[in-house]
Write a structure and sequence with these properties.
Layout: H1 3-15, H2 27-33, H3 47-63, E1 67-70, E2 89-92, E3 95-99, H4 103-113, H5 124-130, E4 137-141, E5 148-150
Antiparallel strand pairs: 1-4, 2-3, 4-5
Helix pairs in contact: 1-3, 3-4
């Protein structure tokens, strides 16, 4: 197992910690969790490494059903060219806001829309992206109750 894989496993475990993990936060809380300050065993990551680890973590959490995404409001096309009208929404438990797409497609959308000019996690352009209509919103699935928790 590579260092990156080990780090991913630690982050997945951290996301299960309801009191100290990013559970319930905005999507940028998950991004910031990729470099938690409390564990000196974490390697120092470059910003590009942090982004890649964030994408891997998000995709894994989506695949495992630990989080869901709400489609971004101003997306007119998917990265593969399909139109917004084709966005699949999950109709489950009466909630049709959930983006019901393959996690790879959702993560690829974020990968392509995250500001390329951002150079660190505190960059203003990145901060603005997290709260913009271009960024999907995240919902957390409570591990005990299954309830969806949105910020």
């Amino acid at each position: 197992m590579t260092t990156s894989d080990q780090l991913l496993e630690k982050l997945v475990a951290r996301c299960s910690d309801l009191s100290r993990g990013p559970f319930g936060s905005w999507i940028n809380g998950l991004f910031i969790a990729v470099t938690p300050p409390y564990d000196p065993q974490y390697p120092i990551l470059s910003f590009d490494e942090q982004k890649e680890l964030f994408f891997r973590l998000l995709e894994r959490l989506l695949r495992e059903g630990r989080v869901v995404l709400i489609p971004p409001l101003d997306v007119s096309r998917y990265p593969d060219g399909r139109r917004r009208e084709s966005i699949k929404r999950r109709v489950q438990d009466g909630d049709d806001r959930i983006w019901d797409e393959d996690p790879k497609i959702m993560v690829e959308y974020i990968r392509k829309t995250i500001p390329a000019e951002a150079v660190h996690e505190d960059d203003l352009v990145l901060h603005l992206y997290w709260y913009s209509s271009a960024c999907p919103h995240i919902g957390w699935v409570h591990p005990e109750t299954g309830e969806l928790v949105f910020s």
